[in-house]
Amino acid sequence: MVFKVSILFLLLLMKEKIKNTATELFLNLGFKSVTMDDIAHEMGISKKTIYTHFNNKTALVSEVTSSLFCAISEGIDVICSVEKNSIEELYEIKRFVLEHLKNEKTSPLYQLQKYYPKIYATLKKRQLELMQDCVVENLTRGVNSGMYRENINVDFVSRIYFVGVVGIKDNDLFPTNKFPMDVLMDEFLEYHLRGICTPKGLETLEKCITTNQLS
């Protein structure tokens, strides 16, 4: 019994190592360009070992993206639980997401949409559900605290924010050589907030922009 448990643990550990290595390679080099051979070479194992845990590359991409989504979701929940002011919260979430996605150097969501449309569609649905709750709560708290204008349509603004976050990841519209993702996210966030902030909120926004530029 102990032997079987040990074998199971080792198998789970290997699967996790494969997933972690694949995640690093996918985010740094792109979902399209990284092959199963690349992952095996990086780990110093045979490709057959990878196929023991994942039937094909699509299955591996699916699990990697799902794990990334869960990790980011949990991190965002922690940030929101602190209940900073609404503007600071959005900047903190932006920093956290970019760190986990390696500043999106390879435009991972855009590559998913192009090469793995089914996985992308599932992820987009989960992302919408997560962001809808998070952004609606952020907007409501911002209005109540006087940071955001009272007359904003919370449901509309939350959805247009989601469209913007997804849209700026379109590499055809915003090529990374012209629009680095960290700069693009800063520009979009400022654009979003200037449209809904009160004078009080704009003061906080200016402080966040200055702090962000210095960091």
TrEMBL record:
UniProtKB keywords: DNA-binding
Protein name (Swiss-Prot/TrEMBL): TetR family transcriptional regulator
DNA-binding region: 35-54
GO molecular function, one term: DNA binding
Record Gene3D superfamilies: Homeodomain-like (1.10.10.60), Tetracycline Repressor, domain 2 (1.10.357.10)
Protein origin, superkingdom: Bacteria
Cited InterPro entries: Homeodomain-like_sf (IPR009057), HTH-type_Tx_Regulator (IPR050624), HTH_TetR (IPR001647), Tet_transcr_reg_TetR-rel_C_sf (IPR036271)
Residue ranges of every copy of the HTH tetR-type domain listed in the record: 12-72
Leader sequence segment: none
Matches recorded under Pfam families: TetR_N
